Amino acid sequence: MSLTPNVYDAEPIPDAARAEIDRMLQSGDLFRYTAPQDAPVALLEREFAALMGSRYALAVSSCSAALFLSLKALGLPRDARVLIPAFTFAAVPSSVVHADCIPILCDVAENYRIDMADFEAKLDGVQAVLISHMRGHTSDMDAVMALCDARGLPVIEDAAHSLGTTWSGRNIGTIGRVGCFSFQSYKLVNAGEGGILITDDPDLVARAVIMSGAYEHNWSKHSPTQDDALTTAFGTWQNRLPLYNLRMNNLSAAIIRPQLAEIPRRVTDGRANHDHVAARLSDCQWLHVPAKLPQEERAPDSIQFNLVGLTDDETRAFATAAAARGVKVQVFGMSADNARAFWNWRFLPQAPGDLAGTRAMLMRACDTRLPARLTRPELDGIADALIAAAHDVMGEERRAYGT
After folding, report:
1. Which residue spans within 276-392 are E strands per DSSP?
2. CATH code at 287?
3. Which of 19, 137, 282, 326 could in theory staple to 112 by disulfide, Cβ–Cβ 3.0 to 4.6 A?
């Protein structure tokens, strides 16, 4: 009998968080700057930077806040043009607009990664690049960085879906000037909400720290060891930047910190789950899972696949048939008001253009969650339901003749 599990529940918060949470509830010590040093948020920043191999980390209220602060910390002028992939979540162009910049969209191919020809064609008119590793799919970062470095363009990595992913052995989020991660409930590490940025640039992180809400001299609690470059940068920017108050609180940090040790296991299990279901789906002629790039080792908690040879009506019928079998499938371009379909971003200050490749991909690209906690029978239940849904729609004649 096929099993169709609840794929939306997160893993339990580790027991190690409870004692610290109880302590804070007793003391009311929730504000990151109450303690003179070693507050839970400060410890999280130190531990996350070490985990990623970065010099600095700044924990904030969301990944959107991290993206916004990264753009502001770059000192971009008002109406600076920031190139982003057309396949991403609405929060990404929103962070660009929030930073008083203009999102410029580049096309994305059927494998969910940047169309490098369109990317290169649009580079000369922009002041920064924000690479969104959407759903954990890594674009060709060697080509991206070569093109951007040649033009002196700073690169921000939106790694909300890519904690644990590597590119040629390097952690995603450490390749560009700054990397941003999410701790929202559907991400690898769950705090309900929360985000963090990492960088090796002391001036950039000093600006971001102050703008995150380090009023007066609270920035001094971000440097537990002697760091002359960081201290100088803090002194330079004191009182010269607005305070946006996007801080993380200690309760969120206490929930996140014990989960950091769980990341390797969640990455290993999530990758195995994805690859097992991908292999099962590859046996169906109407379902195609694009291959990863050779340099990429992913950390997926969902699977994306394209419908092959289906009409619009058949695509809708497939999603309905899968739901009837207990598996929710999101077709990015056909879910009403989907926040990942660029034509729904009506807040953009500049029209995005046709973006034919992205549009075609979104109309057949499907998304199904595969949390790392799922068992093999549950994974087979999901794969069985998806394959059966395709057969339900396409029928025996279509299956026999491929018409």
Report:
1. 287-288, 296-297, 302-307, 330-331, 365-369
2. 3.90.1150.10
3. 137
Query: 53 with 166: CB under 8 angstroms?
Result: no
What residue numbers bound the domain in which 273 lies? 263-401
Rounded Cα–Cα distance for residues 396 and 398 (Å): 6
215 and 84, same domain (yes or no): yes
* Sheet of 155-158, strands arranged across: 56-60, 195-199, 178-182, 155-158, 128-132, 81-85, 102-106
- Tens-digit pLDDT profile for residues 281-337: 999 999 999 999 999 999 999 999 999 999 999 999 999 999 999 999 999 999 889
Whether residue 6 lies inside any domain: the answer is no
Q: Are 112 and 87 in contact (CB under 8 A)?
A: yes
Contacts of 285 (CB under 8 A, 6+ apart): 308, 309, 399, 402
What does the block give as tokens for 348? Answer: 């953009």
Q: Is residue 51 part of a domain?
A: yes
Are 95 and 160 within 8 A, CB to CB? no
CA torsion through residues 14, 373, 363, 356, sign: positive
Let me know whether 282 and 242 are in one domain: no
Domain identity same for 288 and 254: no
Q: Is residue 73 part of a domain?
A: yes
Tokens coding 202: 């002391």
Tokens of 67: 């993206």
CB 83 within 8 A of CB 108: no
Number of alpha carbons in the 13 Å side-chain half-sphere of residue 131 = 35
Q: Last residue of some domain: 240, 261, 282?
A: 261
* pLDDT of 225: 81
Tell me the C-alpha distance between 23 and 32, whole Å: 14
CB distance 196 to 57 below 8 Å:
yes
pTM greater than 0.90: yes
pLDDT band of 1, cuts 50, 70, 90: very low
Of 370, 396, 400, 373, the closest CA to residue 385 belongs to 370
10 Å CB burial of residue 403 (0-12, 13-18, 19+) is: exposed
Dihedral class, residue 261 (left if φ above 0, else alpha if ψ from -120 to 50, else beta): alpha
Question: Is residue 1 a part of any domain in this protein?
Answer: no
Contact status, residue 131 vs residue 122, Cβ threshold 8 Å: no
Residue keyed to tokens 């999603």: 319
